[in-house]
Structures
1.
Amino acid sequence: MTAEMTIGARETLRMLEKGRLSEILIARDSDHFVTRPVLEAAELRHIKITCIDTKKSLGSICGIAKGAAVAGRLSVREA
């Protein structure tokens, strides 16, 4: 994991609720029950949501070998 990203629904949701994220990345092929809480929280806070085609692609963006359903970019002040 890179210092400027969160990986996974739980970690991303936690940081989102603390107001520390500037963008959410969601894999389109993720299970809805995993992504829904993060999407709802991001929409309430008016955080940018970016859709990535696959979990594998999102994992690659995050610098990990396996797929990721959800990730977040930390705000500039937090990175």
2.
Amino acid sequence: MPLHVADITMFHAPASGGVRTYLEAKAGWLAASRPDVRYSLLVPDTGAVRTDAMHTLPAPPLPFSNGYRFPLRRKAWVDALVALKPDLIEAQDPYVTGWAAVEAADRLGVPAVAYYHSDLTRLIGSRVGHWADRGLNAYVAKLYRRFDRVLVPSRMMGEKLERLRVPNIVIQPLGVDLQRFHPMRRDAQLRQRLGIGDDTRLLIFAGRGSHEKKIPVLLQAMKLLGAQYQLLLVGSHMPKRVPGNVHVIDHFVPKDELVGMFAASDALVHAGDRETFGLIVLEAMASGLPVIGVDAGAVSELVTPDCGRLARADNAAAFADAVREVFANDPQAMGRNGRRRAETTYGWNGVMTQLMRQYETLTHRIAEEAPHVAATG
């Protein structure tokens, strides 16, 4: 019998980030490489719709969330999963759909897998204050102890769950589309549109302009770096008042447009210290860019000294120094090294092959392997 895998998540919207990238890569890879595996995806939308792989249930929109919807009641989601009769269920978030995955798996007698993409405690604590940390940690522990396996994108995330005594943790990194993100995808007109010459260092950051991305650190660093360096900020909720050497595209930019911007830039800069993986860093590395990040969060697990530099967190002067150091030490070679690291460790084919081994172990298609938290190289 073919293996049937079902994913469930609320994190599926037009401007979604890493979760949707992961799910789309999985669906595409399975269709191309494992036609013996049936795939289903259950997500919220305006109504109930069912196609070959995509299934939706109605859920109200989440205000100010770029199109996300938030399921309120568990029963319909449990019933929908049970009706699909998968051999394995994977949940992508810790809310109603996460609990639905556990309950449906119990009813079907199949393994339940969770992918812990975001640090819920830190994410909410940064917005409402850390008075809620104890309760949030208890919530995370209660939910994720119910799963047969918990996938995490980085060593940092695995260690966080280990401290909460969550068992069965395995590092499962995200990957990158090595054909889409490539040095040859350069947008030859980008510098002309920005009004800067070829002798100017063009830095880029792409993502939401949210608090945890630490955009003010980048802006202060740009003041210190001066006109020889120019920064392009790409994404929604970016600041409107910026130094003269900063350019802003204040809206979501599709990946097929972003790849050209990356390949036409000289380096990626990322001052955020709370990344749980850093997919945008990996995409920049695949595009042949050196990366300047901070020595905090999971970005420090991606950026090695031969492909970029790490500065102290929340320190604009140190960040500016790290930028200067990259351009004083053959940034083109660092970019090539980053591309090579993406190719050897983070291509979707290798990542998905590793993921399928987890599935086949849990469904007894192959011999059981002991789950572990280990570095991915």
3.
Amino acid sequence: MGDVACLGIVVADLVTKPVGNLPEAGRLALVKNIQLHTGGCATNTGFALAKLGLKVAVLGKVGKDGLGDFIVQQAQSMGVETTGLIQAINTNTSATIVMVSKEGERTFLHSLGANGKYCLDNIDFALVKKYKILHYAGGFLLPKLDGKPIASLLKKARSSGIVTSLDTAWDARDRWLKVLEPALSHLDIFLPSIEEARMISGRKTPEKITSFLLQYGIKLIGLKMGGKGCFLRGQGKEGIYIPAFPVKPRDTTGAGDAWVAGFLAGFIKGWSLEKIGRFANAIGALSTLSFGATEGVRSMEESLKFAGL
């Protein structure tokens, strides 16, 4: 049986660094690097899990174009199952221009592309059932799945004995809880960023955010807090803060997705919540040390050594 089926947004990232101010209209500015990488929450998390030695599938939709070919080839080269990664002829692969500042912070220009057309009819549930965890990656960026459709899929997965997990992206259309609420009662694990969780819950502190969210029956919540580490809490338990690893980031692209991979890997291995959080922080930190979303992620053995576990 496989470990994690990562279902969600699949993107080609054109990453450029360093970017200060954009040039005036009609002008040109020079940057040191422009590189093509795989991106998107499902791809990033899936690839990071694969590098940690887990058995992974990525499910989503790309175009039958150069960018789509690149993503599929990269996934296959890493041993990721791609039978659920559809290449459609009538749409373009989703793409993001990632502009990285000299401090490592990111600004994005994003085209939904094929992600905007990915729907329930595209999902092979027989494939999903071959994995222990169904992780929905990139909530708020899949308009034909977000809301009741993904809630129905998560419910079906849970009733089949599959652990359900969800990670969100920023909701540029400011719908938040209205869109996400149908799915919350069908989740075992919820892993948003602290900023996204504040918008979803209307609360500010990790304690109040998690108290609000746990009312939906979610078993485990992990709040990604960047340089402040993370806050973890399970049903009937006090929350715990786990500090971040002190690193000097080169590129924070995909760090949150790498953190999620670390969390899910630790969960599958049955570790304590504190150990899971420390390992997740380590994977997130390692991902920032190289250019691109997953290039910095190392093997399980190397990652455990870095984490001091």
